[in-house]
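Step 1: inspect the first sequence and its tokens.
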Amino acid sequence: MKAHEYIATVILAIPLCFGTKAGLAQGYDSDSPKPKPTFQWPEGKKMALSLTFDDGRLSQADNGIPLLDRYDVKGTFYVCPGNMSKRLDAWKMAAKNGHDIGNHSIVHPCTINFDWSKKTALENYTLQKMYNELDSANKMIKSELGVEPSSFAYPCGMTFVGSGTNLKSYIPVVASLFESGRLWLSEGPNDPLYCDLSQLTGMESDGKSWEQILKLINTAKTTGKWLILAGHDINTGGNQTTLLSTIEEICKYAKDPANGIWIDNVHRIASYVKAKRAEPPSTAKLPD
């Protein structure tokens, strides 16, 4: 085949790859029939929902936890231990009242591409260094709050250490230390039948209105999935902030039995999923 004939053939083939719904890069098709849910949530619930927040920020202790307590909703708070000191009594009470306190590392390592993360860049980590930090954070949280974290949230949603040919996933490290690990800025809810508990999807709640969140809830409900919302500050507005008004509407809606939602912290739902799938306790070890 001559060069110009080959090029013409390739050009003609391009629409076969990209011109149909089946060829979309990520396979999204909102018009296709939704599969009927097969996973059985407790008490006939149609889906599960968890509210999670990162870093252990002041607004979580000051605004968020009192609001959740008002509706008897248990959240999951992934804390960096050093952030708890200014509200230590509030965090102790939160843990005592059934809120799930998770691990979010000590120094919040992210990619070196972020200016603020250059001194704590994941590119400069090893698996052993990450294991040591997460284990130390667990011990600090246990010492301060009297609870041992069962869940971890990946800072910046990033799951690697090293770079180039030395890059490795630290998901196995998380699997060896925790019942579950949560990602960030994910694009869909978790399928309880198949999801990897060490890399649960987390969909952003920051900046979203109740109407936007309701769409996510309805999608998860239709397919019987587990929606994990992930935010940071809890207030009336601002950068990286989940709106108090949105959280209140979520609580009202989820607590209404007619809506068929099991709203609970990550640990309780993850434990249920593991039991339902008859999975044994993790025996993962730190990889070489």
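Step 2: inspect the second sequence and its tokens, then contrast the two.
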Amino acid sequence: MVTALIPGSFNPPTKGHLDIISRCADVFENVRVVVIKNTAKVQTFTSDECAEMLRIITKDMPNVSVDTAEGLVVDYAKKIGAGVIVKGLRNARDLDFEIQMAEANNLMTGIETMLIASRGDNIHISSSLVREIASLGGDISKFVPPEICKIITDKFKK
């Protein structure tokens, strides 16, 4: 049984993230989603808050579990025995970055990376877009799963 690892900051999770997770859950028997603290990105939500939102939106996927970690993704992948790292791609910029990371990860550990193209209706969605719209009081319901929409908008009302 191959364990697929889907790492990211998920700050906050979007419909695009959920689509990649769901598609992996259909292919792999065991899917681990890990919120990795990325110091280079804006952290509006804590890793624990992101993980909780991911647990809410994946609650009906029995083969998906969610965790948090710090450090290198490959170290976490080795720790849990992941056979593959899965990353979603929205555009050519994502592809350039993820190919570089996939090669580095493979050189360090031998773990392969699978890149999954986002579906057309999710290509434009990013966590930073959601944060910007929410911070200005806009409607984010088209970009995030309904179960977590209020959690996200409430964060920006404070």
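Step 3: confirm your contrast with the notes below.
The chain is about 45% helix and 20% strand. Strands lie at 3-8, 30-36, 64-69, 84-89, 112-117.
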